[in-house]
């Protein structure tokens, strides 16, 4: 099938008018991959949605294509956003595609290298501030009110509209609604959007809805602890957020879905990150792996029923954050030339044994 891109594919579900410009980088249609080994290990039927396969390497492209198309339709010429990295990469790419100026505000030194490289390559104007994401968002919310400027953070309702399409894809690929949908939570846009998608689908097709499992990083877990975190801290920089914009929407989604939100420590996140790559061949960025860490915790505490069908959203590509990947593997030395002869000898012996 020739995939037409997200807006064209899901136009009946989206606020598309005759005047909405066609805009796409062929986002969406990402793989849903079954994890055989982890399913067996945990006694569940576990699938992962590889959102890192989107054009800029994260789920943000789903919402961004919609937000940028609508900004263009409304005659705006400038896009602005605060970001922990992925939103800025996505805004910059779609901004370039749509011929718009893109301004991104990021916490200095706290975004993964690949994401910074993307924003630069796509030609965004980058404002690096001393503060964190929450402060950056406060800044752009104000300027985003100006005529001609579109604020493309997930407080922009078109972002959630685009992002809800992940629910339709999961149901189509799985041929049913999963029992549990697990995902990392930062600014809480994605959990709210996914729930909107499953709810709209359920209304139209009389299907059930999944139970949500939201996972925050322990050092940035305002929803779990029910209080704003002034200085959020975690290795998973994508979700280093202390005051999520869609907090209330997320709580509503969790309540309606009879869901759970929990926190995973950096150690648990990094363990899941390495487990996923080394046992299943899937390299997702640390924040994405919070979903896997959360599932493991739920399995171990007996709260996730054996045999459940679980989908985890792997929100971003592992290549975005090479620094973390290298640092967790620092103990693994490269083979040095002096080792080579004996290495090959041992290898041959091993094969014969
Ligand atoms: N996973 C990744 C890889 C992300 O980049 C984000 C958010 C999330 C999960 C959390 O999603 O905010 O909808 O709850 N990144 C934003 C950004 C904040 O600026 O790129 P959320």
TrEMBL record:
EC number: 4.2.3.1
Pathway: Amino-acid biosynthesis; L-threonine biosynthesis; L-threonine from L-aspartate: step 5/5
Entry-linked PROSITE patterns: DEHYDRATASE_SER_THR
Needed cofactors: pyridoxal 5'-phosphate
Keywords linked to the UniProt accession: Amino-acid biosynthesis, Lyase, Pyridoxal phosphate, Threonine biosynthesis
InterPro entries hit by this protein: Ser/Thr_Dehydratase (IPR050147), Ser/Thr_deHydtase_PyrdxlP-BS (IPR000634), Thr_synthase-like (IPR004450), Thr_Synthase_bac/arc (IPR026260), TrpB-like_PALP (IPR001926), TrpB-like_PALP_sf (IPR036052)
Top enzyme class: lyase
SUPFAM superfamilies per UniProt: Tryptophan synthase beta subunit-like PLP-dependent enzymes
Catalyses which reaction(s): O-phospho-L-homoserine + H2O = L-threonine + phosphate
CDD domains from the UniProt entry: Thr-synth_1
Function field: Catalyzes the gamma-elimination of phosphate from L-phosphohomoserine and the beta-addition of water to produce L-threonine.
Family assignment from sequence similarity: Belongs to the threonine synthase family.
PANTHER family named in the record: L-THREONINE DEHYDRATASE CATABOLIC TDCB, THREONINE DEHYDRATASE, MITOCHONDRIAL-RELATED
Name of protein: Threonine synthase
Organism: Paenisporosarcina macmurdoensis
């Amino acid at each position: 099938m020739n995939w037409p891109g997200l807006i064209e594919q899901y136009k009946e579900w989206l606020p598309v008018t005759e005047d909405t410009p066609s805009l796409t980088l062929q986002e969406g249609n990402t793989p849903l991959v079954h994890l055989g080994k982890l399913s067996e290990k945990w006694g569940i039927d576990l699938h992962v949605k590889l959102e890192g396969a989107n054009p800029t390497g994260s789920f943000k492209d789903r919402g961004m294509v919609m937000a940028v198309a609508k900004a263009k339709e409304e005659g705006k010429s400038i896009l602005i956003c605060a970001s922990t990295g992925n939103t800025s990469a996505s805004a910059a790419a779609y901004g370039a595609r749509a011929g718009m100026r893109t301004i991104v505000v990021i916490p200095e030194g706290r975004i993964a290298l690949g994401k910074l490289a993307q924003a630069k390559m796509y030609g965004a104007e980058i404002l690096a501030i001393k503060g964190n994401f929450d402060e950056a968002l406060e800044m752009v919310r104000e300027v985003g009110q100006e005529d001609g400027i579109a604020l493309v953070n997930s407080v922009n309702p078109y972002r959630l509209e685009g992002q809800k399409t992940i629910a339709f894809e999961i149901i189509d690929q799985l041929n049913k609604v999963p029992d549990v949908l697990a995902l990392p939570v930062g600014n809480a846009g994605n959990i709210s959007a996914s729930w909107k998608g499953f709810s709209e689908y359920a209304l139209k097709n009389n299907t059930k809805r999944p139970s949500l499992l939201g996972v925050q990083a322990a050092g940035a877990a305002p929803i779990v602890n029910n209080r704003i975190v002034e200085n959020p801290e975690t290795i998973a920089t994508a979700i280093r957020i202390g005051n999520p914009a869609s907090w209330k929407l997320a709580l509503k989604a969790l309540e309606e879905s009879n869901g759970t939100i929990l926190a995973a420590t950096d150690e648990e996140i990094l363990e899941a990150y390495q487990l996923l790559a080394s046992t299943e061949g899937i390299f997702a960025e640390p924040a994405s792996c919070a979903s896997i860490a959360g599932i493991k915790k739920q399995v171990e505490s007996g709260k996730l029923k054996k045999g459940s069908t679980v989908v985890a959203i792997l929100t971003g590509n592992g290549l975005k954050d090479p620094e973390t990947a290298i640092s967790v593997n620092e103990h693994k030395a490269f083979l040095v030339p002096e080792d080579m002869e004996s290495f090959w000898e041992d290898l041959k012996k091993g094969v014969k044994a």
